Description:
By secondary structure, the protein is mainly alpha-helical. The chain has 7 helices and 3 strands.
Amino acid sequence: MPDQLADHLPEGRAWMAKRVAGTHMRALVGGAAAPFGLARNLVDQLDVELNIEQTDALIQAWETSVGLPSPCVSIADKTLADRRADVIARLRRTPVVTKAQFEALGRELTGLDVRVEPGANIETFPLSFPLFFSADGGRFTLYVYVTGHQSPHFVYDFPVPLGLYRNPLLECIFQDITPANVRLVFVYD
């Protein structure tokens, strides 16, 4: 590091000894270069920590920057590699904007058949059962139909599905990625 600092010092009579070992000028240059070496090491360490695939000390700052932990994703009892993977997944997340993307995400999360319908298709004529109504005519509503789950049920058949099955992870993640002005209605068949 002293040689690098000496390269930036001017040439001339006063600076001639900047490269001569054992001189006061060389000792002064070496002493002045030490903090630069420390700063360089800290910059190198920061470079490692700013890379999510290598971070260790800044993992909590990374998690906070992407909204973790969230009600959907807990960080308790996870290894450092798992925590890094959660952050990377959040960084790679693209806004889900199409019906097909919602349905693909739902299938990936649950392994169940997930179908998404805009509220305007459900809440306008011709109506079908079960009937759903909202003040905006379904303009800002998405209906998420989840089928294929196994849940306790009655021994008798009813025309309307009855049950208490819910998928909190699916609901949480869908609420998390849906714009704030959109209402989600989950229908479990």
